[in-house]
Design goal:
By secondary structure, this protein is an alpha/beta fold. It has helices at 14-21, 35-41, 43-51, 66-77, 92-102, 123-128, 136-149, 159-169, 196-202, 211-214, 219-231; strands at 4-8, 30-34, 56-62, 83-87, 111-115, 154-156, 174-177, 206-209. The protein has one domain: Aldolase class I (TIM Barrel, Alpha-Beta Barrel). The chain is built from eleven helices and eight strands. It is globular, with a radius of gyration of 17 Å. It starts with a strand and ends with a helix. The model has no long low-confidence stretch (mean pLDDT 96). The structure holds cytidine-5'-monophosphate. Residues 8, 10, 34, 118-119, 156, 178-179, 188, 190, 208-212 line the site of cytidine-5'-monophosphate.
Length: 232
């Protein structure tokens, strides 16, 4: 299993993003492009970052009827991202359709991972608005199992859940984990945070790190520190 640090490039536009990436003269970090940057700049931003030699996690969290998701995934597959994602709440048929859409004529495809429940969803919201009355961690694990059964490659989850996900869905089932901070760093709006070293102990495959790197006085040094702690 490849393990790596993914930098969340949560920037408003291309100029800011490239100014950040230009600071990395020696390494080509794996980057995450989310909705803000993608909606601002379109597919061109993915092509350009790829052309510069970075691997890309395209975090667009698709969720629609199977036919629509299949066609959208076919388009995303042409952008040559390395990881793409969707909401497991769309159901098994949607996840299978996504895999079909993503698979290129030569059989290759990006990794496809699922969001189980967003970390902004808590037990109260689930019960009162979604009318789901089971415990949140049971729902998360069940959605992860659905994703594995549909043939997906992994899930986005907390490093604190990585071990449980591997136990339920297999060691090869990829865990991509945000919510990472350096010891003593500012947690910001993340409720449950873990250091890169702890994420490694807990079995995360990829850690997604945004502000602890992008907001650092020296982002390259912060990235190197993260890699050192996570990969050893
Ligand atoms: O700045 P920070 O390290 O908190 O950024 C984490 C990144 O991971 C953000 O892009 C955020 O949207 C994303 N993310 C998350 N929690 C999830 C899913 C995605 O923080 N459950």
């Amino acid at each position: 299993m490849a393990k790596d640090v993914i930098i969340a490039c949560d920037f408003a536009g291309a100029e800011e993003c490239f100014a950040f990436l230009d600071r990395f003269a020696e390494e080509k970090p794996f980057v995450k492009i989310g909705m803000e940057l993608f909606y601002a700049e379109g597919p061109a931003i993915v092509r350009e970052i790829k052309r510069r030699g970075h691997r890309i996690f395209l975090d667009l969290k698709l969720h629609d009827i199977p036919n629509t998701v299949q066609k959208a995934m076919k388009v995303l597959s042409g952008l040559d991202a390395d990881i793409v994602n969707l909401h497991a709440a769309g159901g098994s048929n949607m996840m299978k359709a996504a895999l079909a859409g993503l698979t290129r004529p030569d059989g290759s495809r990006p990794l496809l991972i699922a969001v189980t429940q967003l970390t902004s969803t808590d037990q109260q919201l689930m019960e009162e608005e979604l009318l789901i009355e089971r415990p949140l961690d049971e729902v998360v694990m069940s959605y992860a199992a659905n994703a594995a059964a549909a043939g997906l490659d992994g899930v986005v989850c907390s490093p604190l859940e990585a071990g449980k996900v591997h136990a339920r869905c297999g060691e090869g089932f990829v865990t991509v984990t945000p919510g990472v901070r350096f010891a003593g760093g500012d947690a910001g709006d993340q409720k449950r945070v873990t250091t890169p070293a702890r994420a490694r102990e807990l079995g995360s495959d990829y850690i997604v790190v945004g502000r602890a790197i992008t907001g650092a006085a020296d982002p390259v040094a912060a990235y190197r520190q993260c890699v050192k702690e996570f990969l050893g």
